[in-house]
Write a structure and sequence with these properties.
By secondary structure, the protein is α+β, with helices and mostly antiparallel strands. It has one domain (6-171). It contains four helices and six strands, in the order H-E-E-E-H-E-H-E-E-H. The protein has helices spanning 6-23, 67-74, 100-114, 152-171, and strands spanning 28-37, 42-50, 58-65, 87-97, 119-125, 134-142.
Length: 172
């Protein structure tokens, strides 16, 4: 028998927290991917959900561990133990009018919820043949550090921050 990796433990906690909310009807999980990249020896877990089935804002939570992260945990003599963990990214997708004040409001609201230690990047796309002025926005929230197993309890609380973010984004 073997011990699960920090990645596996964090994945199970995230799954449990989100699926409990899904069962309660608070969110609707609409997609899930659990991938192993054999070329790079990395793991990626992605789960996409909305606040409700018809919500205008989607969130994708991405947990990934690369070879260095997995090797640091499984072969501690070969790597620094500080590399044992996973990277966490949160993506929000939404449509809105292409107005500068909306871009700034999104940045301000997410910084207020998540703090200034996170990177918030906004990317927009639009169909030049479609409805003018409406854009599809992807907002990428990164923690700029490795998430380690000692922070596993924070993953439960993070779901509340995500739901608060979705509520704010829906109001914009």
């Amino acid at each position: 028998m073997f011990d699960p990796t920090a990645f596996e433990n964090m994945k199970v906690v995230i799954e449990g927290a989100l699926y409990d909310r899904d069962l309660d009807g608070e969110i609707a999980i609409i997609d899930r991917n659990d991938l192993m990249n054999l070329a790079k020896l990395s793991r990626i877990y992605e789960v996409t959900f909305t606040e409700t089935a018809n919500s205008s804002v989607q969130c994708t939570l991405i947990l990934q561990a690369n070879l260095e992260n997995l090797a640091a945990e499984l072969l501690p003599s070969n790597q620094e133990s500080q590399q044992a963990g996973a990277h966490l990214t949160i993506l929000f997708k939404m449509r809105h009018e292409n107005r500068q004040e909306l871009h700034e409001k999104i940045e301000d609201e997410l910084a207020r919820i998540w703090g200034n230690d996170r990177s918030i990047n906004q990317n927009v796309s639009f169909n030049p043949m479609g409805k003018m002025g409406e854009i599809m926005k992807e907002i990428k929230l990164e923690f700029n550090r490795l998430i380690v197993e000692d922070q596993i309890d924070d993953l439960f609380m993070m779901v509340d921050y995500i739901l608060a973010s979705i509520k704010k984004l829906k109001q914009i």
